């Protein structure tokens, strides 16, 4: 016989042997009447007989109650009843008082109705636990399914009780309806779980669980000893998952009500999961509802190394501690919560997402969650993480709405690098009292609650670095009962950028002042840029202390500030848009601030390209107040309006040693006093430069730049190229008291004071003259005043200090262009010398040298001229007085001769005394000027809130300051002026739609009474 034939015969033989075996395994149709034909009974337990792979249960098996205690499935068989078809009647087989125990891989319990009532049991149970369906296989048990069953379980209070219990390697629990009534002994609490899975891999989906659970005293053990990690050994949870090697928990509906509250630390959970397996556990698209009268209430409580909660809906109510999602314990290292919807209501404490892992955490992503809470103490997201190493950890795109007495949108205490991005946070402090139930003492034992509320709070320790808070939308409404912040940070390093903050502050008049800040940074390094902030703040009473006593340095404790930056280790504050409005005044000296920054760090505090405006009906209003050792303010636009006093930039205090303010635009309007710059530095400074600023003021009392500074002689102190325009009745363009050498060069001051009478103001302050510059004496003071253009209604320059006044153009509405007053000097100070040379001086009465008057001072007057020509000889013009003694017209104490200014006739002849000389009239050549405009194509992102477009202007080849730049795009017009660098930054705020546009750029340069223009078309793209 050939080899192939032998193989063929063997194959046929094998088929013949296996065929009968296959045919033998079949489905048995089981009824209550023939039950014993297919199940054997041994000591009250029924076992399926061999030879069947499925048992179709038909009928009502409740008649077997008392006959059998349980059905033990020890074979890979399916026990089921047929599903109803269409709208036909249910064919689900019913069991009462019978449990199912699975001890075989591949076993399936499908579409049975099982009820078990142990609630009235009087005998003492000896079992270790009770369960309607339990899977008790060894670790290799696989492929077990429990699905489509209706389970009703009323428990006793004597043993741990479960609706479905599994300790297998792999189990699927799906589409079951479980109604569970838990019960416990207060003195000896037991586990109550509708579903409990220990070990193995769990696939739990599409179940409906209705659980009435006791909130009972939980037993805690410290694991390991001394670690501070307390682990609960008993749990009252609708679903409890422990040490599973992977969890897929999806599309379940879990409804929980507490029916009993007993003992200290009594708690109830909807879903609790804890374990150490490295496999990821996933909770997705579940609906959780939990209502409890107990102390601690949890929607999800998770402690696995890798956990994902995605797309779940959680609703909770409690009268004490309530968590939507809690992530705590020793195990967590990689955690994601995204797209969850959480709605909580409590009478004490609520946490939407609460994160407090004990060990090092590698990654954390909290994204796209919607959280809505109402409670006295409510926290949208609170995270306390000792070590967060994941560089891609983020808290982004969450939508948080809170209402309570002490709300906190996002409270972070994290050491590590992470981002808070694109969140929408609305926080409302209740203006009326809520029905507060004080937290139980056991809750407060180991917890400290902050005495403030905030939309975002960063309280990390010194190791917290690289935190970013950006692109968030924040709405905050305070009640006036506690310190309240839009964003609060006490971290080492934080970046706050591109956020939109709307902040409504309120103060309780009967209580002590509180802090009201849209942004408050205490300590750490602050990088704050491109934020858009609207703050409605009360102007509140400010207390003042003299520090140190007797110094004359009065320091306030401001409270109502849009931005508060305290003791930061470096500040970069750039391109922010801030509008502050005040409509409520509280107390005397009521004050409001847009930006207040104070500290002692040697790192620079830099404020650049911000657009800040304050509108206040209160008493004192400050746009920027800065007191750091090194301060730089550059390119800011500052606007202020107040019912009494408003300051544009205030630099006052003991800390400043290096101060620079350049190219800022300051526009102020007040009913009494305005100050563009108020600089009062008591200690010595190394550098003080105020340069290229444009100041426009309107008020009865106006000060463009006021500075009182103590300095070293080698200090660099300069006030250069500022343009100051004022309208009022008591004006001082630049008023200085400087110790040391001070340069004042290239400024334009226009102070044409009016004679408006406002008696109520003058009665308090007295009528004062208007000065272009007021230069007061200080120790070793020398003012170098050159190339300034001054127009003043009373006096161009008033000096009571040593000064060199040279090459200035001064026009005065009073009798004299320059006054030198020694009467203001202390008795022990030798009268300094003032040199007034080579200036164009014009007053209402005199011109040239004769427009200089000195009272009690030595003054050198030389080569000054008027509008009609240059003075030929030096001299001192007075009405016969100088500090050297009496002099008559034409004679001075210095031996110099004062010569009457020559007059020029219209015919070109110069008259001198009685002599007449012919002079030649030269033709004036017209110079051709050139304006050069540089503007380039530019692209922006549509989401950019600060679309800045830069235009550069040169006039006759030199950078031109003050040129008017206009950009027109789609019918919208944007304007700006060039700084001394020749650059203008135009903010295209209304360009909010995508597309390609043609922009027309036009420049106007005014020179010698004429206007020169240039235009250019460029492409602007928004994508």
Describe the 3D structure.
The two termini are 83 Å apart. 4% of the residues lie in helices and 55% in strands. It has 1023 residues and is mostly beta strands. The protein contains four helices and 99 strands. The strands form eight sheets. It has a 79-stranded mixed β-sheet that branches. It has a five-stranded mixed β-sheet with strand order 92-99-98-95-96, with no helix packed on it. The longest helix is centred in the first third of the chain and has 22 residues, at 3-24. The relative contact order is 0.03.
How many helices? The count is 4
Query: What percentage of the residues does DSSP assign to strands (E)?
Result: over 45%
Euclidean distance between termini CA atoms: 83 Å
Helix content range: under 10%
Secondary-structure-based class equals: mainly beta
According to DSSP, the number of beta strands is 99
Overall spatial form:
elongated
Task: Tell me the layout of helices and strands.
Layout: H1 3-24, E1 26-30, H2 35-38, E2 39-42, E3 45-48, E4 52-57, E5 70-73, E6 78-80, E7 93-96, E8 99-102, E9 108-110, E10 112-117, E11 129-135, E12 144-147, E13 150-154, E14 160-166, E15 170-174, E16 177-181, E17 192-198, E18 201-205, E19 208-217, E20 220-222, E21 230-232, E22 236-242, E23 247-250, E24 253-261, E25 266-274, E26 281-284, E27 287-292, E28 296-303, E29 306-310, E30 313-318, E31 321-329, E32 334-338, E33 341-346, E34 349-357, E35 363-367, E36 370-374, E37 377-388, E38 394-396, E39 399-404, E40 406-416, E41 419-421, E42 424-429, H3 441-444, E43 452-458, E44 467-470, E45 473-477, E46 483-489, E47 493-497, E48 500-504, E49 516-522, E50 525-529, E51 532-536, E52 539-540, E53 544-546, E54 554-556, E55 561-566, E56 571-574, E57 577-582, E58 585-586, E59 591-598, E60 605-608, E61 611-616, E62 620-627, E63 630-634, E64 637-642, E65 645-653, E66 658-662, E67 665-670, E68 673-691, E69 694-698, E70 701-720, E71 723-727, E72 730-738, E73 741-745, E74 748-751, H4 759-765, E75 771-776, E76 782-786, ...
Parallel strand pairs: 1-4, 3-5, 4-6, 5-8, 6-9, 7-10, 8-11, 9-12, 10-13, 11-14, 12-15, 13-16, 14-17, 15-18, 16-19, 17-22, 18-23, 19-24, 22-25, 23-26, 24-27, 25-28, 26-29, 27-30, 28-31, 29-32, 30-33, 31-34, 32-35, 33-36, 34-37, 35-38, 36-39, 37-40, 38-41, 39-42, 40-43, 41-44, 42-45, 43-46, ...
Antiparallel strand pairs: 2-3, 19-25, 20-21, 53-54, 86-87, 88-89, 89-90, 91-93, 93-94, 93-97, 95-96, 95-98, 98-99
């Amino acid at each position: 016989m050939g080899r192939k034939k032998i193989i063929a015969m063997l194959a046929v033989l094998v088929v013949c042997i296996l065929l009968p075996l296959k045919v033998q395994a079949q489905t048995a149709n089981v009824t209550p009447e023939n039950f014993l034909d297919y199940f054997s009974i041994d000591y009250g337990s029924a076992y399926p007989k061999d030879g069947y792979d499925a048992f179709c249960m038909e009928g009502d098996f409740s008649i077997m109650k008392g006959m059998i205690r349980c059905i033990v499935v020890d074979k890979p068989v399916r026990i089921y009843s047929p599903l109803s078809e269409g709208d036909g009647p249910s064919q689900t087989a019913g069991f009462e008082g019978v449990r199912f125990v699975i001890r075989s891989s591949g076993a399936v319990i499908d579409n049975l109705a099982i009820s078990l009532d142990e609630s009235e049991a009087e005998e003492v149970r000896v079992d270790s636990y009770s369960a309607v369906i339990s899977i008790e296989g060894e670790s290799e048990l696989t492929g077990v399914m429990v699905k489509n069953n209706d389970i009703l379980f009323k428990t006793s209070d004597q043993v741990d009780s479960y609706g479905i219990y599994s300790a297998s390697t792999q189990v699927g629990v799906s589409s079951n309806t479980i109604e569970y009534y838990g019960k416990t002994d207060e003195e000896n609490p037991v586990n109550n779980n509708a579903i409990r899975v220990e070990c193995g891999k769990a696939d739990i989906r599409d179940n409906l669980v209705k659980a009435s659970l006791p909130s009972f005293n939980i037993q805690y053990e410290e694991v390991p000893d001394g670690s501070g990690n307390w682990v609960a050994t008993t749990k009252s949870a609708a679903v409890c998952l422990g040490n599973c090697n992977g969890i897929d928990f999806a599309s379940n509906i879990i409804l929980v009500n507490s029916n009993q509250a007993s003992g200290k630390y009594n708690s109830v959970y909807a879903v609790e999961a804890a374990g150490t397996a490295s496999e990821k556990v996933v909770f997705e698209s579940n609906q959780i509802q939990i209502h409890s009268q107990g102390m601690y209430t949890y929607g999800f409580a998770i402690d696995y190394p890798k956990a994902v909660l995605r797309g779940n809906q959680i609703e909770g109510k409690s009268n004490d501690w309530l968590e939507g999602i809690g992530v705590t314990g020793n195990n967590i290292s990689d955690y994601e919560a995204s797209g969850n919807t959480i709605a909580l209501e409590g009478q004490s404490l609520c946490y939407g997402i609460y994160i407090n892992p004990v060990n090092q955490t590698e990654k954390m992503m909290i994204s796209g969650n919607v959280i809505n809470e109402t409670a006295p103490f409510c926290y949208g997201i609170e995270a306390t993480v000792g070590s967060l190493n994941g560089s891609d950890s983020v808290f982004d795109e969450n939508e948080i709405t809170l209402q309570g007495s002490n709300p906190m949108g996002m409270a972070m205490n994290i050491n590590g690098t992470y981002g808070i991005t694109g969140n929408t946070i609305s926080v409302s402090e209740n203006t009326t009292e809520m029905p507060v139930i004080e937290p139980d003492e056991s809750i407060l034992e180991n917890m400290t609650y902050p005495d403030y509320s905030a939309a975002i709070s960063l309280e990390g320790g010194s190791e917290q670095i690289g935190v970013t808070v950006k692109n968030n939308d924040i709405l905050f409404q305070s009640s006036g009962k506690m310190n309240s912040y839009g964003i609060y940070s006490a971290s080492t390093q934080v970046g706050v950028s591109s956020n939109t903050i709307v902040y409504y502050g309120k103060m309780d008049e009967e209580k002590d002042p509180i802090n009201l800040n849209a942004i408050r940074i205490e300590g750490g390094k602050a990088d704050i840029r491109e934020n858009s902030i609207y703050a409605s703040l009360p102007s509140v009473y400010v207390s003042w202390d003299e520090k140190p006593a007797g110094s004359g340095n009065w320091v306030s404790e401001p409270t109502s500030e849009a931005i508060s930056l305290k003791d930061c280790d470096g500040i970069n504050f750039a391109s922010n848009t801030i509008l502050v409005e005040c409509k409520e005044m509280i107390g005397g000296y009521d004050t409001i601030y847009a930006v207040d920054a104070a500290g002692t760090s040697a790192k620079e505090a830099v404020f650049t390209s911000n657009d800040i405006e304050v509108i206040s009906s209160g008493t004192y209003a400050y746009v920027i107040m800065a007191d750091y050792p090194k301060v730089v303010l550059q390119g800011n636009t500052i606007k202020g309006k107040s019912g009494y006093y408003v300051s544009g930039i205030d630099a006052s205090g003991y800390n400043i040693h290096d101060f620079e303010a350049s190219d800022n635009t300051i526009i102020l309007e007040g009913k009494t006093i305005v100050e563009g710059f108020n600089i009062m530095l008591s200690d010595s400074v190394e550098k003080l430069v105020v340069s290229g600023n444009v100041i426009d003021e309107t008020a009865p009392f106006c000060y463009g730049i006021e500075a009182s500074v103590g300095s070293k002689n080698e200090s660099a102190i300069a006030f250069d190229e500022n343009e100051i325009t004022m309208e009022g009745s008591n004006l001082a363009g630049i008023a200085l008291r400087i110790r040391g050498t001070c340069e004042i060069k290239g400024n334009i001051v226009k102070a044409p004071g009016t004679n408006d009478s406002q008696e109520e103001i003058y009665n308090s302050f007295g009528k004062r003259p208007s000065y272009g510059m007021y230069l007061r004496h200080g120790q070793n003071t020398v003012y170098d005043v050159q190339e300034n253009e001054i127009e003043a209604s009373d006096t161009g320059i008033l000096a009571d200090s040593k000064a060199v006044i040279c090459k200035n153009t001064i026009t005065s509405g009073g009798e004299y262009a320059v006054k030198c007053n020694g009467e203001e000097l202390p008795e022990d100070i030798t009268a300094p010398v003032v040199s007034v040379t080579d200036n164009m001086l014009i007053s209402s009465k005199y011109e040239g040298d004769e427009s200089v008057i000195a009272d009690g001072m030595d003054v050198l007057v030389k080569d000054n001229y008027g509008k009609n020509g240059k003075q030929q000889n030096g001299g001192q013009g007075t009405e016969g007085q100088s500090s050297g003694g009496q002099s008559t017209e034409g004679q001075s104490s210095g031996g110099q001769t004062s010569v009457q200014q020559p007059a020029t006739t219209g015919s070109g002849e110069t008259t001198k005394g009685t002599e007449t000389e012919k002079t030649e009239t030269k033709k004036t050549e017209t110079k051709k000027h050139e304006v050069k405009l540089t503007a380039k194509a530019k692209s922006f992102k549509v989401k950019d809130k600060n679309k800045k477009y830069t235009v550069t202007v040169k006039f006759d080849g030199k950078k031109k300051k003050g040129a008017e730049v206009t950009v027109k795009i789609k019918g919208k017009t944007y304007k700006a002026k060039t700084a001394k660098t020749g650059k203008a930054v135009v903010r295209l705020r209304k360009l909010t739609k995508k597309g390609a546009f043609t922009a027309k750029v036009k420049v106007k340069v005014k020179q010698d009474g004429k206007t020169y223009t240039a235009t250019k078309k460029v492409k602007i793209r928004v994508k």
